[in-house]
Design a protein that fits this description.
By secondary structure, this protein is α/β, with parallel strands linked by helices. Helix content is 39%, strand content 23%. The protein is built from five helices and six strands; from the N terminus they run βααβββββααα. Strands 1, 2, 3, 4, 5 and 6 form a six-stranded mixed β-sheet that branches. Strand 2 and strand 3 form a beta hairpin. It is globular.
């Protein structure tokens, strides 16, 4: 189960139109920064982008899990974007990404945060969940699906 504060409906977007991996990361950065962080969405984008340079966070099957460590938070913060069309994301299977869960964890990330990443990756390996997330047409439904499949 997600901690209640991990993801909220205001940090979920449905049927977003972006044209590139960069634009997808920018959209996630805006949503993550809206959680009341003491930094700008541009700073969050830089952190996500720096992490991507180490290796793609594309999981395959159209899923990406961009994440980064950040100063000034003590609990993980998530955001979710469902795209109207997939974008190239350098995923291991070369499939375009159309579902992305952005995650920020505290700078001093613990095993709990690594376990959260692993849990998210495992959750998104479920083909029924992926299909339901792609079929959803509003943020409320997406939030329900994300929480129900915890």
């Amino acid at each position: 189960m997600f901690p209640p504060s991990l993801i909220t409906e205001p940090r979920i977007r449905c049927r977003v139109e972006v044209t590139s991996k960069k634009r997808l990361l920018e959209a996630l950065a805006e949503l993550l920064a809206s959680a009341g962080l003491q930094c700008s969405s541009a700073s969050v984008f830089d952190l996500l982008n720096d992490r991507e340079r180490l290796g793609s966070t594309g999981l395959g099957e159209g899923i990406a899990l961009p994440h980064a460590r950040i100063q000034g938070i003590d609990t993980a913060i998530g955001a979710f974007v469902q795209l109207s069309q997939g974008v190239s994301f350098d995923a291991p299977d070369d499939r375009p990404v159309d579902l992305a869960f952005g995650l920020l964890v505290p700078q001093e990330a613990t095993d709990a945060h690594l376990n959260l990443l692993a849990s998210l990756a495992e959750r998104f390996s479920n083909p029924q969940l992926r299909a339901a997330l792609r079929a959803a047409d509003d943020a409320s439904t997406l939030l329900d699906l994300l929480q129900r499949h915890a």
